[in-house]
Write a structure and sequence with these properties.
Layout lengths: L7 E11 L4 E11 L5 E12 L1 H18 L2 E8 L2 H8 L10 H11 L4 E6 L6 H13 L4 H18 L6 E6 L2 E6 L4 E11 L1 E4 L2 E3 L4 E11 L4 E8 L2
Parallel strand pairs: 1-4, 4-5
Antiparallel strand pairs: 1-2, 2-3, 6-7, 7-12, 8-11, 8-12, 9-10, 9-11
Length: about 240
Amino acid sequence: MAGGAPGLAVRLHTDGGSRGNPGPAAIGVVIERAADGAVLDEISAHIGVTTNNIAEYRALIAGLRRAAELGARRVEVWSDSELMVRQVEGRYAVRHPGLQPLFAEVVRLRRGFEAFRIQHTLRGGNRRADELANRALDAAERPPAVARAAGPALRDVFALAARLAPGSAADLGAGARVARLAPGQERSCRWGLLLRGTVELAGRTLAPGEGWEGPARYRAAGAEDALVLELGAGM
């Protein structure tokens, strides 16, 4: 991959998506030198379980961080997410709490460049980034039970949770369960999807729609209880 140079201008093609919303998600990024279209770097990464919109923002953030590492001073972004593009342009408000910290990070990163521009393109104009995101999704190894459990659990989980007392959990079948955590309560599982509230995991705070894979211990944060879809509780 080519390195950076003083005054380097780059073009980013970014794409993020999930199979299910929320569901398994991935990002794809292509970084090109604006002067001649030479590809400086590509990113293809599985990011766990989250929503389409969160994946789009995470793709943009990954692209901006890599562009900065390459020494870019001027950045032009192309994305097929009209919502994200209009929000970054300032034309749409960012109301979803799960997107607000991601939007703030984009604002912080863009200040590090001499020039920044973002534009909307149709999917056909973002084909390589889309391919990279889908390649990461295809390559991700997921426990087979997740695919069986997530669909029925998400359809029924809120009705079931309404009957749960904070601090309790209930089985959903196929190895999945829903946990309703009281503030400050901790639990362990090897796969999780946050449905409501906030939790802290590995030093970061997750928002609704975000998830994780791999054995982990998490804690309900904030003043309200948190609702989590789990697979493999107790590890």
